[in-house]
Design a protein that fits this description.
6 domains; 21 strands; alpha+beta; elongated; Ubiquitin-like (UB roll); Beta Polymerase, domain 2; binds manganese (II) ion; 30 helices; 746 residues
Length: 746
């Protein structure tokens, strides 16, 4: 038999293998049409041209796609390379086939360019083609795969060009679509032309040691299979050396030799159901030593491209690490064929039902999903991913607007003009009124309803929009139009945040610190700051955090200064032993004497001093004293609610007196801290550990669970001074799940 006819027959058999109801006459007709259209044309290899469409159809058949796809693969070059027309194909094979062929032709005509902009434009076109009918891109990828397989006959220039385009565009798309096997082959064949030396190096080294590799693979495979048999688990176990390009990437990005590549080998255990996956994982970890931090559960959290599997890396007796992937047969099909697995011909399913809304939805979700979290799978060219983060929508006039994924009608309105956004009162998508928060999908036709009397954007819009453009324009509006309101709302959220971060307004507005803080935040007045927070220009959370850090810094600087002065006064004492060692009241006529408590009280000698239980001050805290009835002077922190001027009872005003710290002789000051944390096992233990590492004396430690899974932990520690206390607070703040550490008051 004629070798070409033989090859056609093999294709037909392959398709019949998975699609017994195949219309054989229609397939043969497509083959004859292509054969006569390409007759007389030769490939660079000298073979008749028809070999190429046949080979592409074979690859498409390996993906087990429907008959229209196979036929379109056979015809994919007839419009481009012969005189055949869309109408002719449509009449003979139906409009769906004609559309597929035309789609592939358009992609073929696309000129590869190294210019970033044009590349993006090409990717956009591909995306639009994909959104219309994903089979177009599947066929195109198969076409490219066969061209790469036969690239040796092309000129060096063409080889490089095609290889680059494949590496930058087609392999990432194959990855995006989850077609692992094809992606690997595209990458490996491209590498061969992009870095022939590097490619050969790896290929040679791998083949030189191939018998050692084979032996290792066989040993481990046998061991795993043996254990599975013992456990009565039905499964398939495969082992392989990872593909060349993934090794290449690791060698070059991590600057390693082949010997240093961590996991050269990958094993796969394919089982029947999900619970068995986890059971097998247990067996594998029982048989080999798992490598810490290498276990990944993509079953409960699939990758954006739909990939599901358990991954673990283990080390066997040989000391060689290898990866084991455990998944069900269904997950395996998705992993190998990706999106194509969903397009597989299914018996009893009419071909027309392919390409229904549901399938589009799947594509959309896939393309809209964001970052691929696994750095191992990181594709160096993320162009496709960038572009998966976009949606393409239309104005009623048919203009295309590209918006970030998740964009709403608000983004759309502002992408037209800020006046359109500011006057928007509603929106229609595909003719139907939708809420402002409606997520736009590619292909949607969006119409903005505006009114001259509209009140302008609402503050909530800032949360509903996805594009920076819309956000900036909305902020602009608030900045200009709503100053009064901005100041009020900004002030409210600023004060709420202060409270949240354990600060008081008084601490900020202190005339000694406020000018510095404002200067740091580049605002002239507090109102300007409030205004900016109000229109969303700056975040209240960040501003308060910055202020808090600055306050801590100032406190520390003041404390340092104080201790430096103390050193100085100690020296003074040598000369004037009678003078008081108090820095604040040293000049005062009535010098108070040193007290055992480390506190000097203005105007009172040798009085009894105790520390208030509500706020437990430590040296370095700003403090104030209260003359109690019969128990001497009680010392509060100045910011203690009980000591705040506005909370003092008028009749007791005369009892509040100035006090200050001097060197005391007490070994430590007891003070209370309160930790807020998300409750978890071992939390209290971690707190105790942290306290012991900072070597602070703990007087009490108690935890209580709060509703909603939170916990409050109270500790009383003894510290020398505020600096030591800040160190403790700092250490405690670093404990996992602790979100706030504050000093207890009240
Ligand atoms: Mn072709």
């Amino acid at each position: 038999m004629d070798p070409i006819l033989e090859r056609y027959q093999a294709l037909e058999d392959k398709v019949k293998g998975y699609n017994p109801t195949l219309d054989v006459r229609r397939l043969f007709d497509a083959f004859s049409f292509a054969d006569s259209a390409h007759s007389g044309q030769l490939r660079k290899s000298g073979e008749p041209y028809i070999i190429h469409p046949l080979a592409v159809a074979e690859i498409v058949a390996e993906l087990e796609l429907d008959t229209d796809s196979i036929i379109a693969a056979l015809l994919h070059d007839v419009i481009e390379d012969t005189g055949a027309t869309h109408e002719e194909i449509s009449k003979r094979f139906g409009e769906p086939v004609a559309l597929l062929v035309e789609g592939v032709t358009k992609l073929t005509k696309m000129q590869y360019t190294s210019k970033e902009e044009e590349q993006m434009e090409n990717l956009r076109k591909m995306f639009m083609a994909m959104a219309k009918d994903i089979r177009v891109i599947l066929i195109k990828i198969c076409d490219r795969l066969h061209n790469m397989r036969t690239m040796e006959y092309q000129s060096a220039k063409k080889q490089r060009e095609k290889a680059l385009e494949t590496m930058e565009i087609y392999a990432p798309i194959a990855h995006r679509l989850g077609m692992q096997r094809i992606k690997w082959e595209l990458e490996d064949t491209s590498l061969k032309y992009l870095d022939p030396v590097g490619y050969r190096e790896i290929a040679d080294e791998l083949s030189a040691r191939s018998s050692a590799h084979e032996e290792f693979l066989a040993t481990i495979q046998k061991r795993i299979q043996g254990r599975m048999n013992e456990e009565n688990i039905r499964c398939h176990v495969y082992g392989r050396v990872k593909h060349t390009y993934s090794i290449y990437r690791k060698m070059y990005t991590q600057n390693k030799t082949l010997d240093e590549i961590f996991d050269l080998y990958a094993f796969r255990v394919i089982v029947t159901d999900v619970p068995t996956c986890y059971y097998v994982l247990g067996c594998i970890h029982d048989m080999f030593n798992p490598v810490l931090g290498r276990f990944k559960d993509y079953i409960s959290t699939p990758k954006p491209n739909g990939y599901q599997s358990l991954h673990t890396t283990v080390i066997g007796r040989e000391g060689i690490p290898f990866e084991v992937q455990i998944r069900t047969q269904e997950m395996h099909n998705t992993a190998e064929y990706g999106i194509a697995a969903h397009w597989k011909y299914k018996q009893g399913m009419a071909n027309q039902s392919l390409g229904t809304e549901e399938a589009f939805e799947w594509v959309r979700k896939l393309l809209e999903s964001q970052q691929d979290a696994d750095p191992d799978e990181f594709v160096s060219t993320l162009k496709v991913d960038m572009f998966a983060d976009e949606v393409f929508v239309f104005t009623p006039q048919g203009d295309v607007k590209s918006l970030p994924a998740g964009a709403t009608p608000i983004d759309f309105a502002y992408s037209i003009h800020s006046a359109v956004g500011n006057r928007m009162t509603g929106a229609k998508v595909n003719g139907r009124i939708v809420p402002f928060e409606a997520e736009l999908k590619s292909g949607d036709i969006v119409e903005v309803i505006t009114s001259k009397t509209a009140h302008g954007p609402s503050r909530d819009w800032l949360k509903l929009c996805k594009s920076n453009e819309a956000r900036n324009k909305i902020r602009q509006w608030f900045k200009k139009e709503r100053r009064e309101e901005n100041i009020a709302t900004g002030r409210a959220s600023f004060e709420a945040e202060l409270k949240h971060q354990g600060l008081t307004l008084a601490q900020i507005t202190d005339e000694n610190v406020l000018p510095g803080l404002l200067k740091k935040s580049r605002f002239g007045t507090l109102d300007e700051l409030y205004n900016a927070i109000g229109y969303g220009g700056v975040s209240a959370v960040k501003t308060v955090a910055r202020f808090r850090d600055e306050l801590i810094r100032l406190d520390k600087a003041a404390a340092d200064r104080l201790s430096a002065e103390k050193l100085a006064t100690t020296a003074d004492e040598l000369i004037m032993p009678a003078s008081a060692a108090n820095t604040v009241s040293a000049q005062k006529p009535h010098a108070p004497r040193r007290s055992q408590s480390g506190i000097v009280v203005e105007g009172l000698d040798n009085c009894l001093v105790k520390f208030a239980k509500c706020c437990t001050p430590v040296p370095g805290d700003p403090v104030v004293g209260f003359i109690t009835r019969g128990f001497g002077v009680s010392v509060h922190r100045s910011d203690c609610p009980n000591a705040l001027v506005e909370n003092r009872k008028p009749e007791e005003a005369g009892r509040w007196i100035k006090v200050d710290w001097v060197d005391g002789d007490l070994p430590g000051y007891s003070t209370a801290l309160e930790l807020s944390a998300k409750d978890r096992d071992g939390l209290t233990l971690d707190v105790a550990m942290a306290l012991s590492t900072v070597k602070v004396k703990v007087n009490s430690l108690s935890a209580r669970a709060m509703p909603d899974g939170y916990a409050i932990i109270s500790v009383v520690v003894e510290v020398r001074d505020r600096d030591e206390l800040l160190g403790v607070v700092n250490k405690l703040s670093q404990i996992q799940s602790v979100y706030q550490v504050k000093r207890s008051v009240g």
